[in-house]
Every structure is written in C-alpha cells, then in structure tokens.
Amino acid sequence: MHAKIYFGSSEDARDELQERKSPYDGSVVSTAPLCDAHDARQALRLAKSATKAAKASSLSQRCAWLLDVASKLKVQKEDIAQTITDEVGKPITFARVEVDRAIETVTLSAETMRTMHGETINTDAFASGKKTTAFFSRVPVGVVVAITPFNFPLNLVAHKIAPALVAGNAVVLKPTPEAPLTAYKFAKIFIESEFAIKDALSVVYGDAEVGDALVSSDIPRAISFTGSVPVGEIVTKNAGIKKVSLELGGNAATYIDKSADLSLAAQRCSLGAFSNSGQVCISLQRIYVQEDVYDEFALKMAKETVKLKLGSPYDEDSFMGPLIDDDSVKRAKSWIKSAISEGAKALVEPKVEGRLFSPCVMVDVRDDMAIVCQEVFAPIVSLVKVKNFDDALPRINNSPYGLQFSIFTNDLALMQRAIDALEAGGIVVNDMPTLRFDIQPYGGVKLSGVGREGPRFAIEEFTEIKSVMIC
C-alpha cells in the first residue's frame, strides 16, 4: 500500500515514490512520496489557514473527534499492528500492545482536555493590587509541527497529534521515514472522521530538507521532536522563538541493592534491557549491583536473558525481532568489541544473523568505557560492581543524559534517598527504568531534552496562557 501526502484534508499522490523495505527480510513493505521543502511550506500554509476553524471549534467536537479515532483504531488494530511489524520489525505481540497504548493515549487526550481549565486570581492579595475579576485560560498556540521516530511509530505520533488537535491547534506531522504507512493509516483515521476539522492535520514525508523547512518557518508556534541529540541541537538552533519540546534519548541505569528481590530484579531488568531489541530511549543500559549480591544477580540475569526468544517478528512468541538497519548492527558489534578490548567480558554472548541480534550481557565493565558512557540503542546491557548506593549514585548521575533511572531495594530510607538524589525526569522504584505509563509526565533533564509528554503535559506545551483582568 502507498502512503500519500496529506495537504490538510486532501490527499496528494506522486509518481516518484520511496520504498520502505522490511528490516527482517528485505521485502518492500510500503512506499511513500518523496517530499521537499516546497511541500513542507505548502502544508504549513494550509495549517495556518486551518487555525481559525480549529480555534473556533467546540471542545465537544474535538473530544468527539478523538474518541471516534480511538474507536476506529480498535477496529483496525490488527491491520495497524501488522503494518508496524512490516515497517520496523517490531514483534507482532508488541505491535498490538503499541496499538492498545495509542488508543489509550488518544482517549486520555480527549478526557484530559475536558478538565483542563484556568484559574481565578486574587489581584487584591497585596496592597499594591486592587480587587478585580481576574483569571487566566489556556488557548491553542496555532500551528504545531510534530516530528517522530521509528521505535514507536504509532504511539509517539499519538502523543503529539492527539493533544495538539484536541487543544484546538492545526498540526503538520513529519513521521519517521522508516514507517510512513503506519503514520499515513493513523492520520487517515483522523482526517476521515465525521468530526474532523478541515485541514487541521497535514502529513509530509522526508528527512533533513523537509524537517528544516518545517522547523525554521515562522508559521509554527510549537515544535515537538523526538529523536537524537545531534538533530535535537539542530532543531533548537533553527527553530527561533517558538515553544520547543525535545525528547532526545537516554542512558538508563538502575541500582540493585542487597535488600532487593534479586529474582524479580533480574526478570524485570532483562525485559527492560532487551524489549524492542534495546531500541528504546529508556532501554536499560547500565546496572549497578551491590558487590555482596553481584555474582548472584549476574547469574540470575544471565538465566533470564537466555529465555528471551529472538526470531521472526511475525511469530507470536518472538520477544525480539531485527534491529532497524545494518548500521545499527555494525554499531552494536562495535560497542561490544570496544568493551572487550578494554577488559570487559560477555557473560551472555550475542548471536548475530543478518539484523537479528540476540541479547548481550556484559560484565567487568568500568565507568570509563564507551559502552556505559554513551547511548547504545541496541540489545546490550552492562553490569557494574559497586560497594553500595553511595558508590553507585555519582556514577549513575555522571551521564550527559537524564531520562529515567530506577532502583531495586526494600530499604524504605534508601528508596527516598534515591528519589531525591537521582538526576532524571523519571524515577522508578522496584522496576525497570524502561517502565512508562502514558498518563504520566514523560521527559528528561540534561541532554535528554526539554518539555514533557503525556496528554495533560503535552496539552500544556501546545497551549498558551491568556491572562484577563476585568476592572
């Protein structure tokens, strides 16, 4: 099936198409039009013209719109899940989970917007003021540009366009080049809904040229980008005076205390490190283990890891499918080779067949090794032996990233210390740092980005506060 451009609510087909090949078997699974900066500017102009109708629309219409989309997404769940698996190689079981999460995200966006409101202000609270009728309300920013990555090609689109649209904005979406058809099918549900606002959503495809044209334009008031730090820096420099939300990845870590349930910790850590083949911004990469239980935990971690099935993403029992491309395989191999040359060992050695890359557990890892200093984005996790939490804390925090960290412990005082001292946007206690609920605020500190996702928090990013005084 061909993905098509959406200039507002109108489809545009092109003769020149770009093929998307399956990362699993190399077959052509979708095609998308080749777009350029002119297409990006056309989509932005239509979005700008649609802002008047979007802003004037009733909240009841916009909520009905999103709930209609969620309902139709349920009906199309299997088709959308299969498309995700085709385009990015995500195992079908997890592709279905992603569709379920997207349904929740869209629904939450509608339900959250119903209760978003301003406040009255006591302007006579100090002698310098006087009594007025004063309040503030939230109003749409106007045009939102959304740029999304490959690892969650449906739900991360939902996290951007659903809050933006329900808040009364117009949106131009540039989805990942790896999954154009997933985005197109999702957008089609929005645009063909009986409750849709005409031209409020556009979809264009492409890489740097299209992205730069969208970001640098004077038309959008808000940019929401999920991707790499280098591209995030370019977005920040080119955006100008706009609201910019960035989710730029991480280097997730956890601490295993001697008081923890080691069996639980090993089981959850193996899932956190290797789900989606490690291609998750909050994929567990560093495990700091108290020396008293290091050997026991390492053994348990190895046993849990070898249980995970690597194979065809179309098999119902596959836990891991292929990495997204050949470059990712090469990088993963180089991480391991580099660490071994520096003295680390592979407790669970990876097996590589094409883009299928089995889980790897590294031990005898030091903090100065690149494999723990940088974002790996592959099914590789490193175990580091530490004396205690005081030893682990500065090592965990000594990272340019700060998206999510976790701790496994049954020591209540230590839990509180970790919550207070760990420098990240999210802290998880007694589970993997890869845990995310879509209703929560999600985002990081340092190079992990600025701003927050999650329906309520994204709506705040996509609205402005208007202050009113009636004297």
Structure description:
The protein has 471 residues and is an alpha/beta fold. It has 15 helices and 24 strands. The strands form seven sheets. It has a seven-stranded mixed sheet with strand order 14-17-18-13-12-20-21, sandwiched between helices. Strands 9-8-7-10-11-23 form a six-stranded mixed sheet, sandwiched between helices. Helix 5 links the parallel strand 7 and strand 8. The longest helix is centred in the first third of the chain and has 24 residues.
Which fold does the CATH topology of the largest domain refer to?
A: Aldehyde Dehydrogenase, Chain A, domain 1
- CATH class value of the largest domain: Alpha Beta
Q: Count of helical segments?
A: 15
Tell me the major beta sheet: 7 strands, mixed
Structural class: alpha/beta
The name of the CATH superfamily of the largest domain reads Aldehyde Dehydrogenase, Chain A, domain 1
What is the strand content? 15-25%
Overall pLDDT confidence: 97
Work out the number of β strands.
24
Low-pLDDT windows of residues:
none
Q: How many discrete structural domains?
A: 2
The second-level CATH architecture of the largest domain is 3-Layer(aba) Sandwich
> Any idea what the radius of gyration is?
23 Å
Distance between the termini: 60 Å
> For the largest beta sheet, what order do the strands appear in spatially?
14-17-18-13-12-20-21
Helix percent band: 25-40%
What is the 3D form? globular
